[in-house]
Write a structure and sequence with these properties.
mainly alpha
């Protein structure tokens, strides 16, 4: 298989060092990524970059955060080397690598590091001139700002990103998916900033934009959005607006089978769990979190906000069915 050949290239001292680092745990892996951001490492020549980037995205989709952190320094190094001739496609790829790094850092709650990678993603996207790379970079940047309580700035960035994608004409499914994704992120950003009217309006606009999209997006699409994915965003929007009942209503017909990746299947569980928890329903919260954990343990274990719910369940509802199983499973894998 080409993917495996790309990852398992002839071992050098650098790849051996990364393998040892991966076994050391997420703290060491974050340090390794920090080192790569402080000074771009020498190229590894490990294999075709497009194949490796696809494999790295697959790790994110599986929730394999530690494995992804382990391969990112080499991917950053080789993508920089490939972008040195200043070809647009190579620069867009480098932007995508930094966007992916930002996404996993956000999962881990490493927002200061994520801000650095998001800024680099935006810079390389702008240089490349790729509208889709620019949209992806803007989205990650806005998410970082949102987590740092800069809601107005994040909302402004997402509004501009959505307008830029719309200006392309939305002639392809890929651009339509990008536009719907921008609207979804804008809706959630507005909700977290307390902008109820805009959040709900953008959610409905995203639903309209997603009507033409397939239920099963093609593998490899940068924004693999589907109508079900928009409905999942609606769960988060209503939760962020403080309306747990509306959130549960929005998600009542969603099923894990509608989502192609472990990361999205788990996200369904964690988003529904947050709504149930806001409604003070520990049993339903626990069931949803167990569903999420079975889909992707790291989506429960690595996200600080979800880990906090697990901790509170164990403290406040230790005898609720499933709580001990959930807490033990998360504690065992830390």
């Amino acid at each position: 298989m080409k993917d495996k050949q790309a990852i398992a290239a002839p071992r050098s001292s650098e790849t051996e060092r990364r393998a040892v680092t991966a076994a050391a745990g997420p703290a060491a892996l974050l340090t390794g990524l920090d080192d790569a951001l402080a000074g771009t490492p020498a190229p590894t020549g490990a294999g075709p970059l497009d194949t490796r980037l696809a494999a790295a995205r697959a790790l994110f989709d599986k929730g394999a955060h530690q494995q992804l952190l382990a391969v990112l320094p080499g991917l950053i190094a080789d993508s920089h080397a490939a972008a040195s001739p200043r070809r647009d496609l190579d620069q867009a790829r480098l932007s995508s690598v930094y966007s992916l790094a930002t996404a996993v850092l956000i999962k881990l709650g490493s927002y200061d590091q994520a801000r650095r990678t998001a800024d680099r993603s935006r810079t390389w996207a702008e240089v490349s001139g790729s509208p889709l790379a620019a949209a992806a970079a803007a989205r990650e940047w806005a998410i970082v700002l949102r987590h740092q309580d800069q809601h107005a700035t994040a909302q402004r960035i997402m509004s501009s990103a959505a307008a830029d994608v719309e200006a392309t004409g939305l002639r392809t499914d890929a651009s339509a998916a990008a536009y719907a994704q921008m609207l979804c992120t804008l809706a959630y950003t507005a909700a977290r900033g307390g902008q109820r009217t805009e959040a709900l309006a953008m959610t409905e606009e995203a639903r309209r934009a997603a009507r033409r999209l397939p239920e099963n997006p093609p593998v490899g699409r940068l924004f693999p959005l589907s109508p079900a994915a928009v409905d999942l965003y609606a769960v988060g929007v209503h939760w962020a607006l403080g309306d747990a009942g509306a959130a549960l209503e929005a998600g009542k017909n969603l099923r894990a089978a509608q989502f192609p990746t472990a990361e999205r299947k788990a996200r369904l569980g964690t988003d529904m769990a947050r709504a149930w928890w806001s409604w003070n329903r520990p049993e339903q919260t626990t069931r949803a979190l167990l569903d999420a954990y079975r889909a992707s343990p790291s989506e429960v274990r690595d996200r600080p906000a979800i880990g906090s719910i697990v901790h509170d369940l164990a403290e406040r509802h230790p005898r609720t069915s499933g709580v001990r199983e959930l807490h033990t499973a998360v504690a065992r894998t830390v």
